[in-house]
Amino acid sequence: MTEMGPDNPKNYQIWNYRKQCVKRTAQPQRELDFIVTMLDDEGAGDAKNYHAWAYRQWLLVTYPGLWAGELPLTERLLADDILNNSAWNHRFFCVCHSGAERAEGEVAEAVALREVGWAMERLGRVPENEAAWSYALSWCRPMPVGSGATTSVATMAVARDLCLEGCEGLEAEQPGCVALLGAMGTLLEEEAEAAAGAGDAELQAAAMLAAAEKYARLAELDAIRSGYWAALKSSLEGSAAALG
User: Fold this and answer.
1) Dihedral angle over CA of 60, 21, 29, 74, nearest 10
2) Closest listed residue to residue 107, CA positions, set 66, 67, 141, 59
3) Taking a C-beta distance cutoff of 8 angstroms, is the pair 51, 10 a contact?
């Protein structure tokens, strides 16, 4: 199987058969190194091979003693290719599923803030990186179903504040960055939703208008989706006006 893998890296049957072999032998230790060779873009591998990533995640969940080197792995892969969405996704998977990163299923505030800061640092280098924005914003909202983790309302709030703070710094340097402005609009809308839940109509309206301002700029900068941004702007302004 090890000899066949490099010649057939995206053959589902090979990966599934390898999984069955590991189940029978219960010897997963060398598998992680094998997968790294299959993800090596400089060799015959492909760092975005879905089957390799799915197999790796199955190994980690099935054999919990293998987690130790996973976050450093994502750091190495993203240092090689900051746009590697598979590596961003794997980092999220690791934080959500590793027992070392969460307590009783809940991601701690310190972990969420660490991950937001880690993502924002890399966005400072490539602010149009949609995968990194998706990752940063994921800590500011409820965990998706099936993620294996939860976050508290308080943790989401402080993560959102940190993300917005980082966005403001980037905006000063990259005022015309479409991905950045889109992320800021999303964060401000979520802040408005949180304010609505807390019964703070004044803060809700202010956040809506701030988001509308970002969408107004996007309507000018992003010609292809100009109508979409303009519609969002009008909707938010109308909702804010209705609040009085």
Assistant:
1) -40
2) 141
3) yes
Report the C-alpha gap between 204 and 213 in whole angstroms: 14
Q: Residue 131: how many CB atoms within 10 A of its CB?
A: 19
CA 52/CA 35 separation, integer angstroms: 6
Pairing of strands 106-107, 102-103: antiparallel
Could you tell me the pTM of the whole model?
0.91
CA distance 115 to 126: 17
Task: Answer whether residue 228 shows pLDDT above 90.
Answer: yes
Helix, strand or coil for residue 84? coil
Q: List active site positions.
A: 10
pLDDT at 11: 78
> 10 Å Cβ neighbour count for 43?
11
For 103, the 3-state DSSP assignment is strand
Mean pLDDT over residues 162-168, rounded?
A: 97
